[in-house]
Amino acid sequence: MSAHYLEGFLEMLLTERGAAKNTLEGYRRDLVDFESFIARRGRNFKTTGATDIQAYLKFLDDTGLKATTQARRLSAIRQLFSYLLGEDIRHDDPALNIDSPRAGRRLPKYLTEAEVDNLLAAAEGDAPDKKRLFSLLHLLYATGLRVSELVSLPYPALRDQDRFLIVRGKGNKERLVPVNQASRDAVAEYLRVRESFCPDGSHSKWLYPSRGGQGFLTRQRLGQLLKELAIEAGIDPAKVSPHVMRHAFASHLLAHGADLRSLQKMLGHSDISTTQIYTHVLQERLKEIVTAHHPLA
């Protein structure tokens, strides 16, 4: 019975909210784990009560699961029961008044501007692999795209006269992201050698084609390339990833005077509270100013 309700919920996320494949798989894993727990208590999605959900959260805490992971699973549970209530499968919502596990919000890791410069310098070269990586790195840092958005850009996503990328992000929402001249030049140089990455010389609809099953460069492969580049640039590879480049984009923009609302739009955040985590950069700048210029510092 629970499996039937779960499939209906996931179908709703796909059709009504345009949830991505990875998002659906995450919801499925979390809710299957919850379903397994309540089944041991003789419950299913239709008969679960608030005490069962509280017991599940205590179980997660006792097993040492991080508060952020607990909160994510509770979010999935809440959305499931909200769906069941809306479909008249249940007449109450047992998750409605359950508090989320408290956790301090982790600050994002990001690179300094000097470190980004070192990465870009290490990526320069005439070989096709270098031209591709140089353009990828430029776009990551210049646009703050999610790695999945970057590797799946269509061809041609950016032409000589284009100053904006049209990006299809989470929830299938489109947004415009400005691209600077240096990044446009890097992409133009890559386009001269792009055909060498097309499978068997065939045409590809992707900006960054690959011989893999998806037809475009994978997120995992780009992550590996950045780790290798970090070593070449003399940077700890543990500090470098596509997502860290996204953080660098946001942090450095704020440090140079960008406002949060503009940054929110460029990052594709639906809620500005997600963007506000980057204000740690502004706080660091204020500390530096006080330290450097206050008479009592």
Automatic annotation (TrEMBL):
Transmembrane segments: none annotated. PROSITE patterns: CB, TYR_RECOMBINASE. Residues 106-291 form the Tyr recombinase domain. One of its GO terms (molecular function) is DNA binding. Residues 1-85 form the Core-binding (CB) domain. The active site is at R146, K170, H243, R246, H269, Y278 (o-(3'-phospho-dna)-tyrosine intermediate). Pfam families: Phage_int_SAM_1, Phage_integrase. One of its GO terms (biological process) is cell division. It is found in: Cytoplasm. The keyword Transmembrane helix does not apply. Keywords: Cell cycle, Cell division, Chromosome partition, Cytoplasm, DNA integration, DNA recombination, DNA-binding. One of its GO terms (cellular component) is cytoplasm. Belongs to the 'phage' integrase family. XerD subfamily. Site-specific tyrosine recombinase, which acts by catalyzing the cutting and rejoining of the recombining DNA molecules. The XerC-XerD complex is essential to convert dimers of the bacterial chromosome into monomers to permit their segregation at cell division. It also contributes to the segregational stability of plasmids. HAMAP family: Recomb_XerC_XerD (MF_01808), Recomb_XerD (MF_01807). NCBIfam families: PRK00283.1, recomb_XerD. Forms a cyclic heterotetrameric complex composed of two molecules of XerC and two molecules of XerD. This is Tyrosine recombinase XerD. It comes from Sneathiella litorea.
